[in-house]
Amino acid sequence: MRMTASELRKRYIQFFKEKDHAVIPSASLIPQLDPTVLFMSAGMQPLVPFLLGQPHPQGTRLVNVQKCIRTDDIDEVGDTFHLTFFEMLGNWSLGDYWKREAIEMAMEFLTNPKTGLGLKKQILHITVFEGDDQVPFDEEAASVWEELGISRDQIHPLPYKDNWWALGDTGPQGPDTEIFVDIGTPLCSDECRPGCGCEKFVEIWNLVFMSYDRSEDGTLTPLEKKNIDTGMGLERALQVLNKLPSVFETGVFKPIMDKIREITKISDSTPEQMRSMRIIADHIRSAVMALADDQGLVPSNVERGYVIRRLLRVAIRQGLQLGIEDYFLKQIVPEVFDILGKEYDELLRNKTHVLNEIEKEEKRFRTTVRRGLRIAERTLKEKGILTGKDAFMLFATYGFPIEMTVQIAEENGQKVDLDEFRKEFEKHQQISRDATQHRFTSGLADHSEEVIQLHTATHLLHTALHRFIGSSVYQKGSNITKERLRLDVQLNRKLTPEELQQIEEWVNKIIQRDLPVTFETMTPEEAQKQGALGFFGEKYGEHVKVYSVGDVSKEICSGPHVENTGLLGTFRVVKQKRIGADTLRLRAVLEQKD
Ligand code: SER
Q: Residue 166 Cα, ligand 1 centroid: separation in angstroms?
């Protein structure tokens, strides 16, 4: 049966509404209950308290469409069905109906042509939990499916790793039964079966029999009230309903893929080119949805911001591989708005933010790539080789992706020593941990782009004070929010207007010179010898990170900083105030010209 995304969403909701389910809205992509989780990765996530027994205000039967971002399978994206952002259709029973009724409803929705999907039973394959030493084989689920007309050879008992569902190590969980559709392509091997990893059997729906709570020590306690948690992947269901070779031909992707083809002017793609196009389409959709969430996320080097940065940068890299020289992400974003804006208002509310952030990130990354390429090529020319250490330097100092270093090396008939790269990487992580333990307190409110920019500006201000006012003008404390930097320094007077002007002019000159911000790790003694600013009275670890802005500023710091000063905007000191006898407090901002 041919069906559009909006018909499928409506049909699903309507079907369960008629079976007394209350319709609930999609929760934000950013989990509110658990700040340690980066993104909502399953429909049940916002419902955890209710799955553990708390009464839900809308009753015991719920249905919705939940936005999800799952990055566990990010490396698989590019095949026919893996995605990082997807919509999950779900129906829940909170201590209400149980296994038989859940399977009966699922079967009706799957096969009924009028109210459901009208799929033929012969193409359905079902997996059930085969049992382990704690929980027995799910004979009940298997026999209900059989009663409903699924033959035993279409029912596959599988182990814990396939047929047990839990969000993390602890919390509500249980065995599940998964519904796959055989799309009719040949078996991949003698062992081909649902869940074997090939693309013949597409999993479209998962019914979890959530009957346990797992505690920290691993013990399973039966839940007082058992729940049903189901999740149907909208994109995959559309693929099989419309008999398409992949999710990328469905209505939620086709206009995006067409746009990418138009930009690349590649109509007849090789398998590698197709993979690259799919990655771009998937990643841009996820990045747009994450940026559009009302929390105002921005690409950065940590946590959620880092996921967004990675998605965008991988997409740009794939674009480079397809030969796209120009800025292109911004041209694709409107397609995502057209497709998903009708369902998700936040896209319309936050359109400018999304477009601006994507444009800025593409600009930043292209600068990084240009610089990295130059350095990699120069190193190759000078040394004839790119070592693992070189690759790490390019990665850590310039943000140059390791994949690109490997590619450049290969183009020159060389191999990068990836083991050495990994060793350097691990060493660096250890140093970062040391540096964090013996922190050079930088007082960052968060790791947003604004805060990181102001952090680099703080180094410049500190250097300027040291340089123009006196070598004893040391930082005593610093506090940075998205709006401004605040720096307390050792000084027993206010600055004169001339001094202020001199400092501002110098900092702005450095910003305009678009100097690279890099770091090196060294012993505290070496840092002091090199004239780095720092609290040498403090106990540092064995190694410290020293950030340099071009050759004008050096300071011990654990970061993070911008990659180059060019994007900082115009620096201005907005206030100065004496606090105590020998401390001057300065507040400064970076003004962006728009
Ligand atoms: N929680 C299950 C899943 O995400 C079913 O919704 O697959």
A: 8
